[in-house]
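Format notes (please read before filing issues)

Several people have asked whether sequences and structure tokens are stored in separate files. They are not. Every record keeps both together, in the order shown below: the sequence lines, then the token lines. Line labels are part of the format and must not be stripped during preprocessing.
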Amino acid sequence: MAALQTKSIVQMQHMAHVIPNSATERDSERVIRGLIEMAYTNSTPVLHADQASRAAGLLGALRTAISRRAVYGRTVRELSALSNRELADLGIDRTMITRVANEAAYGK
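Then the structure lines:
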């Protein structure tokens, strides 16, 4: 299962436009010249998941979707190839072919 962790990013930023109230004259000059830098952190929650299990799940879902679509297509082709008489013997009207194929492939 994936665990929620926090990732911290530290960035440096020039703060030349900020002069603290307690700054001395020399500090004020350094701030004005842009010589004082400030660091701040940004904590962002990051979700780490096992990439292999995610890929396996995606591939499994893709295989299932492909096989179900193949069942659907094969069922439509086979039922469409039957005559109206053969379909009536099965209790299926021609307008029901796609619905029957959908139930065969995907269930109810």
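For reference, the curators noted about this record: The chain has a mean pLDDT of 76. The helical segments are 25-33, 51-81, 84-90, 97-106.
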